[in-house]
Amino acid sequence: MFLLLLFLSVFCASIPMLTFLVLIWWLDRNDREPVWLFGLTFLWGVIGSIFMALVGSEVMMQPLAWVLGPDTAEQWSAVLVAPIIEEPSKAAILFAVMFSRHFDNAADGFVYGAAAGLGFAMTENFLYFADLASYGDVSVWMATVVIRTFFSAVMHACATSCVGAALGWARFRGIIPKIVCVPLGFGCAIGMHMLWNGMLTMSDVAGMPALTSLNFVLFIGEFLVIFAVFQLALWDERATIRKELADEVNLGTLPLVHASHIASTFKRGGQHWLPRGVPHWPYVRAVVSLALRKHQSRNSTGSSHAFFADEVLRLRAEVKGLQGLAKG
To answer: What's the rounded Cα separation, in Å, for the pair 66 and 106?
Structure first.
């Protein structure tokens, strides 16, 4: 039984998280992130953030044990230690990704943050599932799989997406928005994590299972709010693309019909608007990238501005070159 549950632990820890990962990448419909960078962020969650969190938790537990006593500190570590250590551990990769030319705005921050959170959840879930597998209690193991897959893991993704969204929103703004938004993003992430772990711990300590049910209801509400904000971020990204492409139409870079179709994630997939011979998706990607690089250039300074300005020129040339492949 142990070997069977251990095998199922690998499956149940990995397949749902990979499914969620693909779903999040697909939902980023305006300008999907490069698979290699998206996957690298997920991989950090799987390995790097776990190691960083383990070391950080061990360090933080020592003074907590001195203050509260070893037993009390262990009992409340999920509330007092885990959120404060795990959220920065998951989000650490975002401070590197945000300097990539692919990191444009809050929508991208949501996506990369969720990827890091899902990676962390995959490893953490496996450790929980494998530990329970050693006891051989199938009903407890199955209940834990359901709760951790659809609630704890999604909580990790949502929490880290808050940090990513804050970084994305502040990326091309001044120092004051960064000073305000980044701590706010971490505050939301840590607060969500503390609320989830805290209510589960209180339910266990006080023997009040109703608190667990309330915790599920509250988290569903939190998830719906975060999903709604993600949709607003996507809407803002789409509005930016539409605005920048309208400017490119005035400059003669592309026809109005191309701009109107590419700015719509529903229309761009059709074939009728593009001349025969022009490679469809390379052309769409080049035009969307041109719009976003223009926005980045407009809102950056110094060496970053010079880099994005060069990218705009390069992408305009690429768009023109792809148009030149049209067959009469």
So the answer is: 41
CA distance 191 to 175: 24
Q: What percent of the chain has pLDDT over 90?
A: 81
Whole-number Å distance between alpha carbons of 240 and 31:
12
> Would you say how long the chain is, in residues?
328
Alpha-carbon 201 to chain mean position: 27
**b/e per residue 28-56 (b: at least 16 CB within 10 A):** bebbebeeeebebbbebbbebbbebbeeb
b/e code 205-238 from CB counts within 10 Å (16+ = b): eeeeeebeeebeeebeebbeebeeebeebbeebb
Give the integer Cα–Cα distance in Å for 1 and 65. 37
Residue 28 CA to residue 254 CA, distance in Å, equals 24
pTM over 0.90: yes
Residue 309, C-beta contacts closer than 8 angstroms, at least 6 positions apart: 297
Pair 283, 319: CB distance under 8 Å: yes
Give me the sign of the Cα torsion angle 107, 111, 117, 118.
Answer: positive
Query: For residue 178, what pLDDT is reported?
Result: 86
Span 43-56, average pLDDT: 97
Whether residue 21 has pLDDT greater than 90: yes
The answer to whether 160 touches 90, Cβ cutoff 8 Å, is yes
Q: What count of other Cβ atoms lies within 10 Å of the Cβ of residue 66?
A: 10
State the Cα–Cα distance between residues 147 and 28, nearest whole angstrom.
26
Helix-helix angle 209-251:106-133, to 10 degrees = 150
Distance, in Å, from the CA atom of 291 to the CA atom of 240, rounded to the nearest integer, reads: 8
SS3 (DSSP) at 209 = helix
d(CA 21, CA 38): 9
Is the distance from CB of 215 to CB of 200 less than 8 angstroms?
A: yes
- Residue 241 tokens read as 């693309």
